[in-house]
Amino acid sequence: MRTVRQLLESKGPEVFAIGPDAAVIDAIRLMAEKGIGALVVLEPGGRLAGMVSERDYARKIVLEGRSSKDTPVRDIMTAEVATVRMDDVAEACMQLVTERRVRHLPVVAGDEVVGLVSIGDLVKAVIEEQQRELEHLQRYITS
């Protein structure tokens, strides 16, 4: 099974982040500009503060009738974030996103966020692994 390190090597380690004191509207604009559904929220020193997603926006701004211009990200972000490390395997990450019902996992090395894996990255890795196993079995059967 592929590791998080291998996933990041194939997709790149780019992480889009925002500060907790930024206005929610700025977070939504950044997500729209980058075509992504979530941002890592980093304190000024680079420490992981949480995650903010389109889901957070829909539930905590739209449904509550709050202003995205006047509300800081800190007020709607998810502060308790599940994280993974470079040597974790995709299967364990998939279990984590399923159990926690999240779509994004920040990758940490020490206190630093070094990447982000999404449920899409994990599904792709699992499908590729299954395809390799199927091809191996087909070669075994035909030889």
UniProtKB/TrEMBL annotation:
The keyword Repeat is annotated on this UniProt entry: no
Domain of life: Bacteria
InterPro entries, per database record: CBS_dom, CBS_dom_sf, CBSX3_CBS_dom, Diverse_CBS-Domain
Domain CBS as annotated: residue spans: 9-68, 77-134
Gene3D superfamilies, per database record: CBS-domain (3.10.580.10)
Keywords: CBS domain
Family matches, as CDD domains: CBS_pair_bac_euk
Protein name per Swiss-Prot or TrEMBL: CBS domain-containing protein
Source species: Luteimonas padinae
